[in-house]
Amino acid sequence: MMRQTKRFAAPFAMGILTLGLALPAQAYVGPGAGLSLLTALWGLIAAVGVAVVFLVMWPIRRMRRRKAAATQAASQPTAYRADAEPSVQQGADAKTSADTDSTSRPPRT
């Protein structure tokens, strides 16, 4: 442990010395750079905010859709419901699994 402390002592001291002796830059930073920085910051904040909102809203939207689908299924007459038994459905297109022959399909290529 002592060897690692001595190993980084000289570079650390040089870094502190360099930062301490640095003179302030006599440069002008125009308003464009500041506005660009603020725009990027607001864009980042907005992106994170929208992501959080969508993560929170996802389960709520899913729950509302399921509830609406259940309400719609309950309001339909039994003869037209998709989950009703085939014997209850009216019309010639109501088939059971015994009516369909799986061997009549063409082979997969």
From TrEMBL:
<feature type="region of interest" description="Disordered">
    <location>
        <begin position="67"/>
        <end position="109"/>
    </location>
</feature>
<feature type="compositionally biased region" description="Polar residues">
    <location>
        <begin position="97"/>
        <end position="109"/>
    </location>
</feature>
<keyword id="KW-0472">Membrane</keyword>
<keyword id="KW-1133">Transmembrane helix</keyword>
<protein>
    <submittedName>
        <fullName>Uncharacterized protein</fullName>
    </submittedName>
</protein>
<keyword id="KW-0812">Transmembrane</keyword>
<feature type="transmembrane region" description="Helical">
    <location>
        <begin position="37"/>
        <end position="58"/>
    </location>
</feature>
